[in-house]
Amino acid sequence: MLGEGLMKQWLLSRQGKILVLGSLCLLLQQLSVPYSLEVMGALAPTASLLHLHVGLLLAIAMLERDRWVLAGCYAMATVGWWVRAWLMSYDAFALWTGPLLAVVGCLWMILCAHWMGWPKSPGNTRVMRRDLLRFASIGLIVFPAGLALFGLLTSFNETLANGASTFIQVWFAKHFGVAVLTFPLVLAWCERNHIAVRRHAIGWLWPLLLLLGVLVSLWLNHQARSLFAGTGHQDIVLMDYRFTLFAVLAWCMLRLRPSVSMPLLSAVMFALVCALAGTATLSGTPVGFINLLHLAMELGILLISMMYFLVISRDGRELSARLREDAQRDGATGLPNLKALLDRVLHDPPRRHEIGYLLLDQVDSLRTGFGLDTQAAAMNAVAARITDMVQPYYVGTGQFALLPQDSGMGLREGMWENLMARVDQAEIEAVGQRLRLLPYLGVSGFSIASAEAVDVALRSSSHLAFEARRHSEVRPLYDEKGNPLLQEAQRQQMYDAAEALDCLRNERVELHFQTIVSLQDYGAAVPTQTGLRGEILCRLRSANGELIAPARFMRAIEAAGRGVELDLAVLRALQRQLRNAPHSLPHCERIAVNLTGQSLASASFRKQLMELLGGSPLPLSAWCFEITETTAISNTALAGQLLEELRAQGCTIAIDDFGVGMQSFERLKDLPVDVIKIDGSFIRNVAQRGKDYALVQASAAVARAFGAQTVAEFVQDEETVVCLRELDIDWIQGYLVSQPEPLGEVLARLN
Fold first, then answer.
1. Mind listing the pLDDT tens digit for each residue in 4-59?
2. Spatial CA neighbour of 521 closest among 512, 533, 539
3. Read out DSSP for 114-145?
4. Which of 124, 252, 292, 459 is at 20 to 30 A from 10, Cα to Cα?
């Protein structure tokens, strides 16, 4: 192994390159394709139609950045030429000017390589389409023309015809050397690590048949020339097999690696040059020159077209790969998306069929407060913290699908909890501030690596993640078996949302009213409350006449993000009914309307609400806006601003369902509150359960501390009323007082 390493190191050194490549130049220098050419009545001596060593030297000039390597190889080739010229008794002038012309030729070779843009900078050695035009113009025309002009310097004392013959011979020899060897070698070397354009199974039968046809055609060509030898017509017998060659080479460009297809192209062109060399021997006519020129043009077109075909096919393949990769990336964050997840599962299914769904809360606030760039940076930061444990796939704003990196069977119990801890502890830098995002995680499994199974598992895990957020669950929620009814439940939710939206947009909104009375007035002979106080309850009427309760549509509406549409529909319906009953307006003391968290965080809702209140038939002091304690508010600052504005205009602000969530005191601290409505789950058993009694007592104390009134919900019996009097509750609401009634009937009684 040590010896092999030393040998490889030596071969890559300057001395090793010069010795190996220079020796190869000397070997190629000995290959000759003899022909003769008559120009202007002068028959030139037989020479070689092909100088392959020149093609190799130009390839070295284009690929090797160390110019000493080229100089060394050129020197060895010059020595070989000088020895052969001495043995063939060249005149003294040619022998002594040969080395000087070699120096000029080497410099000319370097200059032409530079004009063609080679050698390229390290890491950028690809052959591009724009390179092919330079290859064709400079490499195949200008470069051999320059060497041919230098060759005339050794024949200045010859006749014009001999000089022209020498120029043409040298130009064709250098031209074919470059065409046959240089550019196929350069492309093969630059694209040696690239796979074939088409990687599917190769069918070898038909290209082998085509190649056999080419060989038969070449053999028949040779036999025809032999048959007409000495008749003066042997050189006009040409067998047209070049279209077959084109088909074979095109197939090779698509199915074989460039390191194989380019040498094959080189071999084919070498065979063509050898087969057609004799067409230049028509004495006394210009046909020989025309045939050679035709051959040069044909080979040049074949070379450039095949190279272009390969390069454009390569570029198309790479573009397709980039588009495929881009399709599997999120445009804003650059993270893999669901398409990438599905591709991984289908093509490289993990042994561990388990998927997590990570939901980050308050991400919308990042976009609103700091911009899309900050939000994208935050998503990338979160993904980077967990990449060693799972592969994250970006689903949407603040949402990731997760596949474990480790397929160990005993990993899950601790992995998902550790992942949650990492995300929870991650601090996001935003405009000099350090922020944290609240994570919620659902985990589900799937047994079959299919798109359908992944889809079901994703729905299950996402459902669990949203449930975790709904219940403020800080631990992952697992669905070991997968919920077979989840798909149907989610479809039903989508159907309910669509049905509810249809009702809202067609104004099939029915309002009910439940009265709220002062506990002091309840049971009193002479009540002090003279006006109407109560809460508006929304019902929807379906197209077939069915009355839809809030339990059926509220969650679907909020999940669909249509809370604003619901609240505006309720407010418009309420104002419409109040205007239709003007006699009732003086009796309306306080009308409470519920607002969703989506409305509170919406700037457009604020604008429309203010427009509605500006045209309100009721004084603003009669309006009370309720928000539930468990309402998810994406932008607390914007919500607080809206409620403060409503309060400043005389409206009352109430917190509904107080005590059932984890944010009771935070709501009181962050939002302006006038009324606290204690959740009915505590009121229901307040007379029987000491814990409920204590919680209601604490809630009432907190309300008094904040200067807020209290309303007890779900009051259904007299025993409960006695307890509430002891606790000094201000208002009561429930079936004992009044059941929900259609608002129209309530307003009609006020006449």
1. 667 777 777 889 899 999 999 999 998 888 877 666 555 556 678 889 999 999 99
2. 533
3. HHTT-SPPTT--PPPHHHHHHIIIIIIIIHHH
4. 124
Q: Under DSSP, is residue 656 helix (H, G, I), strand (E, B) or coil?
A: strand
What is the rounded CA–CA span in Å between residue 21 and residue 280? 32
Q: Residue 750 has what DSSP assignment? A: T
CATH number of 491-749: 3.20.20.450
Query: Per residue in 110-155, pLDDT tens?
Result: 999 999 999 988 877 888 888 999 999 999 999 999 999 887 766 6
Is the preceding peptide bond at 392 cis, omega within 30 degrees of 0? Answer: no
| Per-residue confidence (pLDDT) for residue 259, from 0 to 100 | 83
Q: From residue 427, how far is each of 358, 419, 473 by CA, in Å?
A: 17, 14, 20
Q: Which amino acid is it at 28? A: L
Instruction: Look at 394-398, 523-527, 661-665 and tell me which has the smallest mean pLDDT.
Output: 661-665
Domain chopping of the chain, boundaries: 14-321, 338-484, 491-749
What value, to the nearest 5°, has the Cα angle with vertex 25 and ends 242 and 308? 35
pTM (global) more than 0.90: no
Compute the distance between CA of residue 157 and CA of residue 377 in angstroms, rounded to an integer: 77
Q: What is the mean pLDDT of residues 471-493?
A: 63
Q: Locate tokens 């013959």: which residue?
A: 165
Question: Hey, which CATH number is domain 338-484, 3.30.70.270, 3.40.1180.10, 3.40.50.150, 3.40.50.620?
Answer: 3.30.70.270
In SS3 terms, 89-102 reads as: CCCHHHHHHHHHHH
Of the candidates 556, 663, 601, the one whose C-alpha atom is nearest the C-alpha of residue 364 is: 601
Task: Say if residues 584 and 536 touch (Cβ distance below 8 Å).
Answer: no
Q: What's the rounded Cα separation, in Å, for the pair 352 and 186?
A: 47
CA dihedral of 372, 377, 383, 384, whole degrees rounded to 10:
170
Distances (CA, A) of 342 to 318, 443, 448: 22, 17, 12
C-alpha 267 chain-centroid distance? 43
Tokens standing for 655?
Answer: 């917190």
Residue 662 has a pLDDT of 47
Tokens matching residue 719? 């025993």
